[in-house]
Design goal:
Number of helices: 20
Largest sheet: 8 strands, mixed
CATH superfamily of the largest domain: EAL domain
Number of domains: 2
Strand order of the largest sheet: 1-2-3-4-5-6-7-8
Shape: elongated
Structural class: alpha/beta
Length: about 400
């Protein structure tokens, strides 16, 4: 059923860890079996239709590519042709066989401007006709194994398509795949980097300059709050600064807006000026920063009908700061020692506990592929699947509108 659909989005990055596109994961909540092909098709078309009508032609990916994993029945429908072909990469499942009908359909779609990717590809001579049609070939490095990967890559050399490594989970795997000649990469490494050593994250110069101009012109507080929300480093540094010993606060900072109110425009302008001088290029992968901001907004939206306004502000901080350990490459408890955050926020960040914890856990589950966990967490909060789906779409649209 279409009201049981969730949507996921995972970034695809180039060799410099810049986002070039996203894989969009359209799925229903039940496990699909052979007898469910028709319902799979209906679920896929309904979710895709809702996505297009709800957030327009720019939908989930901004100016990036959208990689869409499609079953053969979906591939055969005319519905695909409603999508903007210049943005779309159609992923053929690993079970796809190069029948004359399928090859003809792929050639037709190529002629309309769509790109073709082969998902979880394992080379067999019989699949050679598919390789002739593909612009992207995705290799699951967990399925193939790092030891066997060079042999697979060698079989695919001297062809014009781009190689994409899937399920990259460590820095070592990323570096090895780069050496083997992969062009693009996808996997949890880019969302959850391994802990190496402490480092500093810096805000983007452009964001600091924009804020300086806003403060100098006495912009409204909500406008300034919105700019802080699109830069994780700025939010972190502001709260660390205002909670420093020198400020001698007698109350906990409850939100970014609360911090700005206490600090005042004059002090904020001085602080931003200092920050502009000391800020460098942000060394955090852009995919990680964007994931953090999306998670913050999604956590906030999931709890908006359950909690008061102040708590909703806290939900945003909980979502964004849940990736600080990955950004700073240090344990979360060490980071929280530097911030005077309310106990409920700390409970959520340390153990997904307290009043905010379940909303954060559900937001994290929306990024993954474990449908059973997603269902369980949604049901525990008495949230309908469609409600979760709408919140996720709204969060993705909001972050794209910020221009992050």
């Amino acid at each position: 059923m279409s009201d049981q659909a969730y949507i996921g989005r995972q970034p695809i990055l180039d060799r410099q860890q810049k986002i070039i596109g996203y894989e969009l994961l359209f799925r229903h909540s039940a496990e699909a079996g052979h007898a469910q092909v028709i319902s799979d098709l209906h679920a896929g078309t309904n979710v895709l239709a809702n996505t297009l009508s709800n957030i327009g032609t720019n939908w989930l990916v901004g100016n990036k590519l959208a990689f869409i994993n499609l079953s053969n029945p979906m591939l055969e429908t005319d519905f695909i042709e409603l999508l903007p072909p210049e943005r779309i990469v159609l992923e053929l499942l690993e079970t796809t066989q190069p029948t004359p009908e399928l090859l003809a359909r792929c050639k037709e779609l190529r002629g309309r401007g769509f790109s073709i990717a082969l998902d979880d590809f394992v080379y067999e001579p019989a699949l050679a006709p598919l390789l002739d049609l593909a612009q992207y070939v995705k290799l699951d490095i967990r399925l193939i194994g790092m030891a066997q990967l060079p042999a697979h890559v060698q079989k695919l050399e001297e062809r014009p398509f781009k190689l994409l490594a899937e399920k990259v989970e460590t820095r070592a795997e990323f570096e090895e795949c780069k050496k083997l000649g992969f062009h693009y990469f996808q996997g949890f490494y880019f969302a959850r980097p391994e802990t190496l050593s402490a480092k500093v994250i810096n805000p983007a110069h452009a964001h600091v300059l924009e804020l300086l101009n806003k403060v100098r012109n006495n912009a409204d507080l909500p406008d300034i709050d919105r700019l802080f929300k699109r830069d994780v480093a700025l939010s972190f540094k502001l709260l660390r600064y205002i909670n420093s010993v020198g400020f001698g606060l007698s109350c906990e900072i409850q939100s970014i807006k609360h911090a700005l109110t206490i600090l005042g425009y004059q002090q904020l302008y001085r602080w931003l000026t200092l920050l502009l001088v000391t800020a460098g290029e942000d060394s955090t992968p852009p995919a990680l920063v964007k994931t953090a901001i999306i998670r913050g907004r999604l956590t906030e939206l999931l709890g908006q009908d359950y909690l008061e306004k102040q708590d909703r502000d806290n939900l945003f901080i909980v979502g964004v700061f849940s990736l600080l350990d990955a950004m700073l490459e240090m344990p979360m408890d060490k980071i929280l020692e530097q911030l005077n955050l309310p106990e409920n926020i700390c409970d959520a960040l340390m153990g997904r506990q307290g009043i905010y914890g379940p909303f954060l856990a559900l937001a994290e589950a929306c990024e993954g592929t474990d449908i059973a966990q997603l269902q369980t967490l949604a049901e525990s909060l008495q949230l309908e699947p469609e409600k979760v789906n709408q919140a996720h779409l709204a969060a993705l649209k909001w972050v794209e509108a910020l221009g992050v």
